[in-house]
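User: Hi! I'm a student and our assignment asks us to look at how structure tokens line up with a sequence. Could you show me two examples?

Assistant: Happy to help. In each example below, the sequence comes first and the structure tokens follow. Example one:
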Amino acid sequence: MHSVLLLFTLLTSVFGRNYKAAVVEYSPNVGALGHTVTRDQALELMRSNLVQYQSFVESAKSQQVDIIVFPEYGLNGPNFNQWKDVYPYLEQLPEVGTNPCDTWTNNATQKGREVTFSLSCMAKSWGIWIVANFGDKVKCNSTVSQQQESNEECPPTGYYQYNTQVAFGSDGTLAGKYHKMNLFYEPYFSTPVNQKPQKFTTDFGVTFGMGICFDIMFKTPLYDLHEEGVTDFVFSSWWVNTPPVLTGTVMQQSWSKVTGSNLLASNSGYTWHSSGSGIFNSGSTLTSWYNSNANLQNVSKMLISEVPRISFFVEEVRRKVKENENVTSNPTMDGVVVKPVDITPHSKGSLDILLPTITCRLQYQIR
């Protein structure tokens, strides 16, 4: 007879084993389509969006939010045609583990990286995790570019240009940096070749996988991270809605259901065509918003929800199984009941879990 340990837990809300998340459906100030600007003009536009980010962050922190997610192209919009169009909006991002707010102490160190510095200090000032999206540039033929080789020749700007998702910790540290792997008609961005799927771990005990928009349609990187055991994901998007099936929230909810994961999805509120944000738990909608009105434009709103810690229970299961490999009795440990179960093919049975005020019964059948 073979046996495994089934671990039963009470609802996460009973123990408060949640974290609090916010996603922002944001309509950014954008530049003119295909219009090349100076760095100062690009910075002025991005700063106008950072001012709005600041108001959302302040509101989120006042509601005890742990992590807030902003959309793809949220700082500059997607109105680019060529390499040179997006170049003024790019910054050379530092290595993960760098804290710009603490270490870039003068104008010289901040110059050309003003947005990075602002996001770092925003996260530190409010003590909140911030996930945002903008452009990273890596000089061709540099040590970094050799490690992050692109599949294109060096662009005429002299830099590989990446659509990038960043995560800043509550102390301002750059905790995660991900270059979009699956571009959607973005000829002004490079495709990384040697990059591995990226993730980061927060100080509130949750590890998040990182993904941008079209990535959700491919195995790499998001599903690869799921197969590695990551249960929570941050997703920045400027989706292209194609009703009735390929709308943003439909894709987000279905992906969360298929993977049994938590998905924090932030989309653009520019028009209905790019709308659709939400927070999803194993396919259950905790909160969502989709603008179905073609006449309603430039919508910005924040969605907030408590999110069950799936990762907590995955880790708890693994730990309890390891601790109780030879358990034949039925001990209880902090709401967890461990019982041996026959997994011989075609076996079936039921288990009763006795709690002070209720009895839970599980019926199972092994196919």
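Example two works the same way, sequence first and then tokens:
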Amino acid sequence: MSEAVFLLDNRSQKLLSADQTLGGSEGNDVRSIGGSCMAGMWGGDWLSWGIAGDLPSDQKFANAVSLCWASEPLVQDLCIMGSPTVECTISVADGTWGIVAARLCDVFPDGQVALVSYGLLNLTHRQGHDMEAVSELTPSQEYQVSIQLKVTGYTVPRGHQLQLCISPSYWPMAWPSRDNVTLSVVTGPCTQSTLRVPVYVPSNTSASSKQHPLTATPRLGPDIPHTVIRPSGGKREVQLGLSSGKHLMSSVTDLGCIYLPENGTKFGEVWSDYYHIEENVPNSAKAICDRTFNIEWPRVGTKAKVVTHSEMWSDQKVFFLNNKLQAFVDDEAIFEDSWEDTIKRNFV
């Protein structure tokens, strides 16, 4: 393993190699961007099942509301394996709470942009997650922060560009911060803003093998004997209110229905998630999640179903949660209950 280090250069909006010189010789350069709830709508589900709609889509739309830096086209494949890290100098305006989302992307020669990895940092937790370390931000004050991205194994091919994108929101993957801040990233000779990428260097043994370990076909274990009753599928949509500013992202994940002949069990599950938010109003965010789980034993003529409905929203001080659960056996309700709760935000 080795590490590739890139410098963030605001003047050229480029990722420069560590041996290059930042544009300009006097003072630092600052780039700023306001929080848009659309930055995270193209990032796929937090837990992906690999079915239609739940994987990240083309990142061009997210990049339109993010600060971006791109490398020159790569002269050789870049094999990333591990957890990339962004270390940068930032400041915020218009608030004292905030988050920063960093995305690492692969820019194709035809303009498509694929998500490689992402990371999130609650800026009030910039010094640690213990309550003694958590503190508000001071507007316009510069802070050096480190954002660890998720572990990934990905090869950026020769001719593609490596791209780093930063935004002060990532809804609905991350709940919006209380304040709708403007985020600034500082680069230049008087500060240090870098992207560090762990790079896999093949050994002599792996280099001589027929298949590269990062591009070889994944190996799967033996499947359980089963019959597909209803195939899995999904549908993910984004509705943008161009006049109202009110947006909705909906995601319906049908995990399908299968029959296991070994024990005579048939089961299926459907998830439905709806994320509402109004542009520039972070405390308008609301999540509604429905789950339906069915299980049936045809040999004995018995079936059961569990249905849940959950809602979450917030104001500047607390989160509000409503949950309802229902259980049925042979279409007869045997249990029903609901819960309401509030949780103090505590810098979240």
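Here is something you could point out in your write-up. The mean pLDDT is 91.
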